């Protein structure tokens, strides 16, 4: 019974934040601890989860109720030793800049922690694994990272089975050096999402490099952590993973044969040699490697590659003399292993789909990974909103639907858009672009509350990774005043023609209806042409284009259902 | 090793030899988690990713097949259901069929794009894409064959998007039972529950696997048995075929990928009553989808019959039936219908076996099933006047042969009858309604039987009838309004 009340408090504080979180702050620590003592273990774990989200719950990515209550609660729950280390392992979806910084701090302080729980190590493992996987997303051909991921996954399995206290500690230290030495991930190939309305929304964007120079000042923080210089070389720890692996996985083939190595890179090599880690990056036997070595360069080159690949495939397929006859299909030995496995060496680690090693295949694979990335992000953002089954698309859309898809790159999405939705899509795109506009916060003004003169709501500042600047999102500066870009556009439009105004109404209405829809490239092109005639070009000038803002995609149908009521399952 | 608290969890490892499969059958209320530890494995042609834990439930019966050998680990709740390893599978013949179909596809694509065939190959056959009809008796694994062939096609790396057509109303495929539908498949179809044997239709959730966000074209037949109204069935099949043809006009890749039709087992039952209907419906499938390959799954007599009728026009091939097929009884099918309707409205979240060491399960290919597989339907109140409900033909219809000689029906099989919810005994309580697409906006284009030709956009269930106020409560999959305001009621009922 107490948990829902806490969830309410949590929701109010996170979503509304401003006056409430401040008022809750003095009482929250005692309240939490008292409740924690009184409830059963499952509720406790739920509360712990919630507590973890509070670390970054504030709109600026800081502690929701400030550092003091947060630390007080954490120390009470996990003990003083664990606090430091636990700080380093927030749940996977809450990684942001502050975490990374705090993590550095924690890694220095925690070496003295007395006892290490399995859960703690696991969550750290998950964290590093997540880091590596994201790195892999942005650079899928990085074999080193691939190996890291594989080994980490094995380690995770190991820890889940259970290892001794001593080993846990060793894994922890090793992990720390690994995560600290992780080179800053390059910007992913997908555009960074325009974050949705509140900054606490979890994002899967990789943690940005931490440049000490441009780091924003954080006046309210009691202990300013210093930024340790990231060492590019992993610290050579006296302990190596292979010992654990060999000790724990005695059954695993020939791991024990791995020579003792002190460096994690060597370890990976040793594991690959020993056959524990499949060298997944290296294709095995590709008969049609014509385009395999060529880098994707230009579109014509790629089209030619695709054509060549299709030709090679055709040749390969037609070279089989299989007749569609009952006797023939039973007699033959099909070369299907080559067709379905060996010729498609690139495999998505998440869903098992394979791609050819041609440049066209690489392109498809990248698109596919982008799709996973987008969907993961959406899934994490949509938490709690609830999904529902859509109506099927209309006959007309079905007949013409996927034709658009086939030409475009949206294949992996398998989604199409109705022609009617195109107009709404257009409006949503306009709004997304407005929302992506930002004004750089003058130094020192981060904490200063600023509200939009039109809607009187607060502008939220956030850190823009591309620019390495703190900005006000969805903001525009006019005559020395900061407006919401959307509000300003609406106000400006209301003065101009009726047509523009109508469009804006559609766009503002679409804000409240937010199902997920992908934007096929065709539609975007249409939207672009309409964009050019929309309000005033001067407003669009300083605008940052962001690929999509799913949070503001429009619904296909209008919410005119009579007396709709959500049903809890 | 902290498994002490989970006494009834069974963990096992299986090492599969090349070309063998691990088969399992789940009982109601049990779930199974399988992890591919090493090697390559696939379930009905959809490859498993190594190291991921896949969940199965709702009495799923499936098999993990490996071409090259693999090692899997599994966990089961409750008592382990049937499970065994078999090395006698018909996968090699199926793969040969796949290669033969691929040959047709590449030829069709080459002809469509005008690119030359390799030397010495250009006289080998027609340039027709494969349009396959899969026939077979009950429990012969027709759906599995369709699934394997479709999955192999989309896995070929050639961006095929074959059309998968389901004309088995008792299966329901992508939506509710009683529907016949078609959908273009671009990613392997995953297996997790028998309620969505061919993937599932799109939701507002962000899905990772395209086969969980299918956009089917669906017509509502409304009954589980084909013999209930064969004329209606014939008409719907022809509608489906016509629309697929329209779609392919602008879609070369889709056209070259061809289609695969899964049929009801009644098509393969070569005895008893309704034989003429059976042949008529097979013919309408052949005509509607322009079939050029007929696969007969493990039925000699049917094969001979098809050879005689169609052997001169197209390839009729008998393919072996898998030894792993499970005899399914009527009550199982009814339970699956219930699961299907439940999943349509509420989504399907299979509970993982307790004691599983990881929390990262994959259910039907979804990485985060807890976030995306759980759906919230909406309950809404509708005035009687706001929606027009039809029933096609009479509710209980005597066969034509039972009528007095010379007599004609007062109500034909195809006549849409208006159902008045205010009438007692309307049979609407708990009934599943298909909401139809809006009729032609142009009044002059309308015709009497238009409702027969309108595709379904979704399904609702009437959960309450309020006679005095002339209102009813319906459970709708989404909060959006009931699109077409026209609905058809069939013989399916569902209650929670």
TrEMBL record, chain A:
One Gene Ontology term of the biological-process aspect is:
mRNA 3'-end processing
CID domain residues are 1-81
State the residue spans of region: Disordered: 82-117, 203-231, 277-308, 494-569
Give any Gene Ontology cellular component.
Answer: cytoplasm
List the SUPFAM superfamilies hit by this protein, alphabetically: ENTH/VHS domain
Molecular function GO labels: mRNA binding; RNA polymerase II complex binding
| Low complexity: bias regions | 107-117
Where is the sequence biased in composition, kind Basic and acidic residues? 296-308, 502-516
Pfam families xrefs = Pcf11_C
Q: Where is the composition biased (Basic residues)?
A: 90-105
Composition-biased stretches (Pro residues): 204-222
The name of this protein is CID domain-containing protein
Q: Which organism is it from?
A: Trametes coccinea (strain BRFM310) (Pycnoporus coccineus)
TrEMBL record, chain B:
HAMAP family attached here?
Answer: Clp1 (MF_03035)
Q: Where in the cell is it found?
A: Nucleus
Per its UniProt record, what Gene3D superfamilies does this chain match? Clp1, DNA binding domain (2.60.120.1030), P-loop containing nucleotide triphosphate hydrolases (3.40.50.300), Pre-mRNA cleavage complex subunit Clp1, C-terminal domain (2.40.30.330)
> How is the subunit organization of this protein annotated in UniProt?
Component of a pre-mRNA cleavage factor complex. Interacts directly with PCF11.
The terms describing its cellular component in GO are: mRNA cleavage factor complex
| GO biological process terms, semicolon-separated | mRNA 3'-end processing; tRNA splicing, via endonucleolytic cleavage and ligation
Q: Where is the Clp1 C-terminal domain?
A: 375-496
Keywords, in A-Z order:
ATP-binding, mRNA processing, Nucleotide-binding, Nucleus
Similarity comment: Belongs to the Clp1 family. Clp1 subfamily.
Q: Which residues form the Clp1 P-loop domain?
A: 136-347
Q: What is the lineage of its organism?
A: Eukaryota, Fungi, Dikarya, Basidiomycota, Agaricomycotina
InterPro entries for this protein: Clp1, Clp1/Grc3, Clp1_C, Clp1_C_sf, Clp1_N, Clp1_N_sf, CLP1_P, P-loop_NTPase
Q: What is this protein called?
A: Polynucleotide 5'-hydroxyl-kinase GRC3
Q: Where would I find the Clp1 N-terminal domain in this sequence? A: 16-108
State where ATP binds: 21, 61, 139-144
- Reading the lineage from the top rank, the first entry is Eukaryota
GO MF annotations in UniProt: ATP binding; polynucleotide 5'-hydroxyl-kinase activity
Q: List the source organism.
A: Trametes coccinea (strain BRFM310)
Functional note: Required for endonucleolytic cleavage during polyadenylation-dependent pre-mRNA 3'-end formation.
């Amino acid at each position: 019974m107490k948990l829902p009340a806490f969830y309410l408090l949590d929701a109010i504080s996170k979503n509304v934040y401003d006056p409430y979180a401040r008022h809750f702050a003095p009482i929250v620590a005692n309240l939490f601890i008292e409740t924690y003592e009184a409830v059963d273990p499952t509720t406790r774990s739920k509360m712990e989860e919630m507590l973890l989200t509070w670390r970054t719950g504030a709109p600026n990515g800081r502690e929701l109720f400030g550092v003091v209550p947060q630390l007080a609660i954490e120390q009470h729950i996990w003990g003083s030793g664990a606090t430091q280390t636990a700080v380093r392992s927030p749940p996977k979806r809450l990684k942001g800049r502050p975490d990374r910084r705090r993590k550095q701090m924690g890694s220095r302080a925690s070496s003295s922690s007395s006892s290490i729980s399995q859960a703690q190590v696991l969550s750290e493992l998950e964290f590093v694994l997540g880091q590596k996987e994201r790195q892999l997303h942005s650079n899928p051909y990085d074999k080193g990272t691939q190996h890291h991921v594989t080994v980490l996954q094995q380690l995770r399995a190991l820890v889940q089975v259970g290892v001794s206290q001593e080993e846990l500690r060793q894994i922890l230290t090793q992990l720390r050096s690994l995560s600290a030495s992780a080179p800053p991930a390059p910007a992913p190939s997908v555009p960074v999402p325009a974050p949705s309305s509140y900054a606490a929304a979890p994002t899967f964007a990789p943690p940005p490099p931490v440049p000490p120079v441009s780091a924003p000042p954080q006046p309210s923080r009691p202990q300013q952590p210093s930024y340790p210089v990231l060492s590019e070389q992993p610290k050579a720890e006296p302990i190596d993973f292979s010992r654990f692996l060999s000790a724990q996985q005695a059954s695993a083939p020939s791991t024990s044969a791995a020579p003792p190595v002190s460096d994690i890179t060597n370890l990976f090599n040793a594991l690959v040699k020993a056959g524990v880690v499949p060298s997944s990056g290296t294709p095995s036997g590709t008969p049609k490697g014509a385009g395999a070595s060529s880098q994707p360069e230009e579109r014509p080159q790629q089209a030619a590659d695709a054509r060549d690949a299709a030709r090679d495939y055709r040749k390969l397929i037609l070279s089989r003399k299989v007749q569609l006859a009952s006797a023939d299909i039973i007699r033959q030995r099909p070369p299907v292993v080559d067709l379905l496995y060996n010729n498609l060496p690139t495999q998505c680690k998440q869903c098992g789909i394979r791609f050819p090693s041609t440049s066209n295949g690489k392109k498809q694979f990248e698109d596919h990974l982008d799709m996973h990335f987008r969907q993961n992000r959406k899934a994490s953002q949509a938490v709690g909103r609830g999904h529902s089954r859509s109506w099927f698309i209309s006959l007309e859309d079905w007949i013409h639907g996927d034709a658009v898809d086939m030409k475009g790159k949206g294949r992996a999405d398998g989604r199409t858009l109705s022609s009617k939705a195109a107009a709404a899509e257009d409006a949503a795109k306009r709004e997304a672009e407005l929302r992506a506009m930002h004004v750089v916060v003058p130094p020192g003004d981060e904490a200063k509350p600023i509200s939009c003169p039109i809607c009187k709501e607060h502008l939220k500042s956030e850190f823009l990774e591309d620019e390495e600047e703190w900005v006000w999102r969805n903001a525009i500066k006019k005559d020395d005043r900061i407006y919401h870009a959307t509000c300003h556009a609406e106000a400006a439009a209301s003065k101009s023609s009726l047509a523009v105004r109508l469009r804006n109404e559609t766009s503002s209405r679409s804000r409240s209806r937010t199902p997920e829809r992908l934007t096929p490239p065709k539609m975007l092109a249409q939207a672009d042409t309409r964009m050019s005639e929309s309000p005033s070009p001067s407003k669009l000038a300083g605008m940052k284009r962001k690929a999509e803002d799913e949070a503001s995609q429009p619904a296909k149908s209008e919410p005119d259902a009579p007396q709709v009521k959500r049903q809890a399952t | 090793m902290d498994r002490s608290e989970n006494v009834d969890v069974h963990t096992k490892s299986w090492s599969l030899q090349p070309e063998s499969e691990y088969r399992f059958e789940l009982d109601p209320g049990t779930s199974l988690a399988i992890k591919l530890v090493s090697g390559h494995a696939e379930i009905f042609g959809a490859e498993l990713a190594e190291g991921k834990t896949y969940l199965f439930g709702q009495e799923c019966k499936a098999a993990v097949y490996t071409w090259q050998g693999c090692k899997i680990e599994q966990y089961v709740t409750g008592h382990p259901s049937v499970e065994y390893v078999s090395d006698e599978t018909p996968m090699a013949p199926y793969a040969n069929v796949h290669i033969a179909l691929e040959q047709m596809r590449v030829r069709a694509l080459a002809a469509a794009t005008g690119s030359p065939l390799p030397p010495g190959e250009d006289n080998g056959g027609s340039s027709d894409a494969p349009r396959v009809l899969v026939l077979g008796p009950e429990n012969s694994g027709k759906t599995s064959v369709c699934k394997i062939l479709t999955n192999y096609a989309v896995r070929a790396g050639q961006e095929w998007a074959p059309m998968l057509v389901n004309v088995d109303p008792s299966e329901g495929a992508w939506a509710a039972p009683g529907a016949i539908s078609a959908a273009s498949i671009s990613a392997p179809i995953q297996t997790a529950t028998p309620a969505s044997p061919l993937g599932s239709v799109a939701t507002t959730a962000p899905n990772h696997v395209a086969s969980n966000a299918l956009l089917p074209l669906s017509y509502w037949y409304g009954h589980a048995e084909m013999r209930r109204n064969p004329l209606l069935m014939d008409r719907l099949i022809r509608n489906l075929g016509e629309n697929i043809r329209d779609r392919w006009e602008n879609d070369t890749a889709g056209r070259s990928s061809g289609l695969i039709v899964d049929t009801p087992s009644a098509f393969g039952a070569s005895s008893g009553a309704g034989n003429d209907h059976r042949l008529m419906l097979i013919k309408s499938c052949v005509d509607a989808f322009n079939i050029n390959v007929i696969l007969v799954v493990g039925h000699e007599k049917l094969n001979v019959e098809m050879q005689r009728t169609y052997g001169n026009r197209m390839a009729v091939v008998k393919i072996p039936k898998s030894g792993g097929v499970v005899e399914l009884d009527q009550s199982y099918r009814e339970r699956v219908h219930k699961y299907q309707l439940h999943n349509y409205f509420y989504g399907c979240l299979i509970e993982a076996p307790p004691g599983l060491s990881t929390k990262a399960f994959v259910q039907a290919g979804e990485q985060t099933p807890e976030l995306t597989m759980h759906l919230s339907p909406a309950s809404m109140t509708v005035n009687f006047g706001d929606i027009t409900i039809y029933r096609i033909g009479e509710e209980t219809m005597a066969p034509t042969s039972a009528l007095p000689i010379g007599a004609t029906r007062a109500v034909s099989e195809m006549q849409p009858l208006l159902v008045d919810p205010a009438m007692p005994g309307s049979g609407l309580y708990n009934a599943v309604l298909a909401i139809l697409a809006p009729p032609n906006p142009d009044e002059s284009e309308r015709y009497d039987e238009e409702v027969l030709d309108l595709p379904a956009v979704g399904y609702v269930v009437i959960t309450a009838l309020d006679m005095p106020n002339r209102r009813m409560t319906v459970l709708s999959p989404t909060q959006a309004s009931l699109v077409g305001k026209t609905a058809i009621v069939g013989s399916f009922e569902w209650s929670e």
